[in-house]
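call fold(seq) -> tokens
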Amino acid sequence: MTSLDLLNDLLDAALSPILSLSDLTPTSFSYRRPTSHVPSDNVSTIHAVVTQRKSQLAALDDHINLLNHILDKLQGIQVKLKEKRVLVQESLTFHEALASPTRCLLPSELLGEIFLRCLPQTSYVTPSSNDCPLVLTRICRQWRAVALSTPRLWTSLSISLLKAEMSGGDAYKFWLEKARSIPLSIRVVHDMDLSDGDKPLSIQWLRPFLSQCSDLWWHGPPVQGLLDNSVQSLSRFQVTFQKANFPISIPSPTPQLRSVILQSLTYDLHSLGSIDLPWHQLLELKIQFALVSSATFLQVIGLCTQVQRVSVSSICANASLQTDMQPITTVNHSIHRLEVNVIRVGLDSLFEALTLPALEELVIRFCSPERYPWPHEQFSAFVTRSKCPLKWLTIHRNKGAESHLTEYLKILPGLKMVV
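ret:
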């Protein structure tokens, strides 16, 4: 019998008399009100009941005090047992880790590949001591050594210039240096407030890494000479504008650049005057602004002679633009997929001005459901003129094309339309 079993038996024996106490037996006076008249010959009997109740009350108080004392002791024992359990659990975890197959059997190369699968599912990793890859450096010496010697763990990073300014960028530099010579994916959030006119922001520590970027997302106000250094590895470039007329220029050669995203949810794009990019070599282009004039979009399409996938939001055209566009025909022989978000009138003029012989998929999103009619005649003329192998036509928030499906199938026998 263990000591705990013996203690349990002793508690049962000690508590048995207490638990078997009889219930309080009512007297003949129990149902009278306290103000009721009591005959004088019953006073002595009542005094005897009072004396008995006081004795019973004192005995119950003794039992309660004894039980409180026992409970205090048991609680103290419980606390010590819980503390001991924590120590035993830590020891168990430690020794299981020592015997773990990942420590004893897996080579460093395989362990590194497993680490790569643990990275956050995002294009740009925000450093956190509780997430991969930093958390891997805190498990054990072997994991730390493998993590620090696996360059691909450190190729993705989201940078806050405000945090970098406080430390000179040391933490970010330490991260990116571990990537060695592997191309980088970097998001830079310009969250500095420079409105007080102090000295301009310095990003000298960042420039060597920008030249190593294959994927760069600049979010915020521009910095003078941002891409003056060589960026020959850059294949994807994204800019999020926070003010109008954001100047974008890549003075150095970018032979690998194939994908560009230009976006601002608060400003319109009416001109390419402040944007200088190697349009002719792009394969993918996304333009996402509050409003994009149709004339500017057509200008872009004319410059992008190799682009295959284009997305634009939100196309609009006023009366003057529509009039100006009608005599113009923009031909692009490379676009396979076109996605257009329409916020105002102008889709009909856009169809009249475009010829896309290679178009296979067209997605049209109307921002206002059923507000503007589907430009059936202009669309029919567009696909007839383009002679394109259009296979998919997807139209959101406008069902006007449904009634013309039969006619469209005569022009495009393999067409599948989703409305």
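The radius of gyration is 39 Å.
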